[in-house]
Amino acid sequence: MARRDSRKIAVAALLGTLMLAGCGGGGNSTFFGGEVPLENFTAEQIYGRGEFELERSKADDAAFYFAEVERLYPYSEWAKRALIMQAYAYHQDKDYENSRSAAQRYIDFYPLDDDAAYAQYLLALSYYDQIDEVGRDQGLTFLALQSLRRVIETYPDSEYARSSVLKFDLAFDHLAAKEMEIGRYYLKRDQFAASVNRFRAVVEDFHTTTHTPEALHRLVEAYLSLGLTDEAQTAGAILGHNFRSTEWYEDSYQLLTNNGLQPRAKGDGWLASIYRQTIKGKWL
């Protein structure tokens, strides 16, 4: 997060905070019983009130005051500080659209500043923190992945890059989970060809996720149901080579042997190609 200039800033702004203490975010401030416009206060005082509102968990009010610093003192150092804090406060208030807007303005205006990495990270979080259920549309997940990748590639040495890598992996896993959910839906309804397409996407595009072993097992199930035994055996062979200790391999092995088959690479389809890459150590 933007550096808050330690407690000295808060102390320095304390008088301004007290003067503004009666304000409810409407643009005017109560000062000894009289109405005093915000224009009468310094940037430092208004910024201090924003920090005060954050301290008491009033993120929406904090965002208002930080925005006022930017509006009233647009070219000041306080405006720059207030802009990143505005993005943070909006995010705390779960106002992701405005958080994203403030973060993007910071990146546009101060691309070389130390806090530009945090602004880009906040922008990514504005998408990432809205990823919740597998069943929802995954457009936000794609946007989160793109934004997190930008943090990783643009600011590789920042602390936010490390956090972004972890979140990127989780978001990537989330997309794979969506493919698995749809694939299982088709499989249960005997729409085997449609289910194969989903499980194939996991194996080919999301093979670094935790869903790959199950996807291979579901391919064994689907291909056996379609009578495509070469593909079923090859999926079982890949599963055995990479995930032999999993329950998914045990289930696939039993399913194949019950049908008089063995997990072995056969044919020349897409799975056979993956199996050859696996043996050569170029896959997973």
UniProtKB/TrEMBL annotation:
Subcellular localization, as worded in the UniProt entry: Cell outer membrane
Query: SUPFAM superfamilies recorded for this chain?
Result: TPR-like
Q: How does it sit in the membrane?
A: Lipid-anchor
Q: Name one GO biological process term.
A: protein insertion into membrane
In this protein, which residues make up the domain named Outer membrane lipoprotein BamD-like? Answer: 42-235
Residues annotated as signal peptide = 1-23
Q: Cross-referenced InterPro entries, in alphabetical order?
A: BamD, BamD-like, TPR-like_helical_dom_sf
Q: What keywords would UniProt list here?
A: Cell outer membrane, Lipoprotein, Membrane, Palmitate, Signal
Superkingdom in the source lineage: Bacteria
Q: What's an example GO cellular component term for this entry?
A: cell outer membrane
Q: Does the keyword Membrane apply?
A: yes
Q: Name one Pfam family in it.
A: YfiO
* Function, as annotated: Part of the outer membrane protein assembly complex, which is involved in assembly and insertion of beta-barrel proteins into the outer membrane.
The family classification in the record reads: Belongs to the BamD family.
Q: How does it assemble?
A: Part of the Bam complex.
Any idea what this protein is called?
Outer membrane protein assembly factor BamD
Q: Tell me which species this is from.
A: Cognatishimia maritima
